[in-house]
Design brief:
alpha/beta, Nucleotidyltransferase, domain 5, carbohydrate metabolism, about 400 residues, 5-stranded mixed β-sheet, kinase, about 40% helix
Length: about 400
């Protein structure tokens, strides 16, 4: 019998598993690496976050990814080579983290690799007549990761979600539900990454069919792209200072919000394929604002991101929602964006996931570690109902180290 199958069966029977969660989002800032000890599975899951770091992407690495990122046409040869190269590079990053943490690879049970999303194609967005289905693509070959690190690797989580009728995103609902449900309050877990999304959690013990997760529109993707265009030495607007110095333009903001995505039913998914620099430029042309100063442009885009979230929250919970909202992702460090959210959702209480004992920057990597833990030791869970139903499937493909 394959010794790795024996090992996998042993892992499933253990009371806990040590899992490295890897996440790189659409912001392309780096690879989040979370070393987790996960006790149990399902609603009994308990997390110990042993180590966490973000390994920054170099300018060259970001440049390589952007050659295919959210582009409808790319070189097939380049895409193929990048897939293998990213897997090996992520493996090198993991190995360096383990050496720094003085943790032997043999002491790690699993790697959970999200991969690098380069194209997200839900049917409502691509509307290709020959392909009436959802699809998504993450690069970073997990076989390279497994062989390079010597650790069993679980990857391609989104593909099973798509195959079972989902859109492949957002997947946070599973981990949020297992780790962060509360018997005392209903919660909204808001991730302000390149694309913003939230998970709604009723009080623990209530019907899991009311849980759902949805994208709301751009989070940081247009903000970061605009900073790179107008301030080439900067990667992002640190602390929202540039946006705070500007004034939002009402005409441009209305034009940006004038898209069917914002009126479509929840849940829904999107990506930088839609909310791109081209989308912004077209909105500027239609609103006669091509000459708008960069600070005013960033102020407008901050309002755009905040209103996308606020509209989705009101769409789901009424005109005056009163919820506890816990924020994670890069936007959690942007006080200008957080102030706009508080202004548009005055009845809600805001904090970061640090208040729940989970480091905001680590949350996404941790959630994929939870998915790998469930793939090996858990039982598929179905969340939501109707169009909001999240398929009850076991997500993740297994790559052996040898």
């Amino acid at each position: 019998m394959n010794p790795y199958l024996v090992r996998l069966a042993q892992l499933a029977q253990q009371p806990s598993r040590r899992v490295i969660g890897l996440m790189s989002g659409t912001s392309l800032d780096g690879l989040d690496v979370a070393l987790c000890r996960l006790h149990g599975h399902g609603l009994a899951t308990r997390l110990e976050l042993e180590e966490f770091t973000t390994v920054p992407y170099s300018a060259d690495m970001r440049h390589r990814i952007r050659q295919v990122f959210a582009r409808p046409q790319v070189s097939l040869e380049y895409l193929t080579l990048l897939h293998a190269w990213l897997g090996r590079t992520h493996g090198t990053m993991v190995a360096a983290c383990l050496e720094q943490w003085q943790v032997a690879p043999a002491a790690v049970d699993l790697i959970a690799s999200h991969g690098q999303t380069v194209y997200h194609a839900p049917h409502h967005q691509h509307q290709h007549p020959d392909f009436p289905l959802n699809a998504t693509l993450q690069l970073g070959d997990a076989d390279h990761l497994a062989v390079h690190t010597g650790i069993i690797t679980v990857s391609d989580f989104r593909q099973k979600h798509v195959a079972a009728g989902g859109e492949g995103a957002p997947l946070a609902a599973y981990g949020d539900y297992l780790l962060l449900s509360s018997p005392d309050e209903e919660r909204l877990l808001l991730n302000l990454g390149g694309i913003a999304n939230f998970t709604y959690l009723p009080r623990a013990g209530q019907d899991a069919h009311t849980v759902f997760s949805t994208d709301t529109g751009p989070g940081n993707t247009l903000l970061d792209a605009t900073v790179r265009t107008h301030f080439p030495t900067l990667a992002y607007d640190a602390n929202g200072q540039l946006a705070a110095a500007g004034r939002a333009h009402a005409g441009l903001l209305a034009t940006l919000l004038n898209h069917p995505f914002f009126e479509s039913n929840l849940p829904k998914t999107t990506g930088p394929e839609l909310f791109s620099v081209a989308y912004l430029q077209q909105a500027q042309q239609r609103s006669a604002t091509p000459a708008l100063g960069p600070e005013d442009l960033l102020a407008t885009l901050t309002e755009f991101s905040a209103l996308g979230v606020a509209r989705a929250v009101r769409q789901a919970f009424g005109a005056q929602p009163k919820l506890s909202i816990y924020v994670s992702g890069g936007g959690a460090h942007n006080p200008t964006l957080l102030a706009a959210l508080r202004r548009h959702l005055p009845g809600c209480r805001f904090a970061t996931t640090q208040a729940l004992g989970l480091l905001p920057d680590a949350k996404e990597a941790v959630l994929f570690a939870v998915l790998a833990n469930e793939a090996v030791a858990g039982t598929p869970i179905s969340l939501g109902s109707g169009r909001q139903r999240v398929p009850g499937v076991s997500m993740g493909k297994i790559s052996w180290p040898g």
